[in-house]
Amino acid sequence: MPVLHRIGDRWSVVPISLLTERPYGYNELDRAVADLCRRVLTRALRALEREGYVSRTARPEG
After folding, report:
1. What tens digit of pLDDT does each residue of 35-47 get?
2. pTM to 2 decimals?
């Protein structure tokens, strides 16, 4: 049932659909989903990470 809850959340579907194609950096993902404000994107990604649907890896800048 948690999967249906996540799919029902319209703001989670957009990042999931993009992330199935390839890995994205946060800023790149932010640009790709221009209809979403950063706050909503951050909340959606944190929820997806907390529930184990996505993971993130810190990369060195530069």
Report:
1. 889 999 999 999 8
2. 0.77
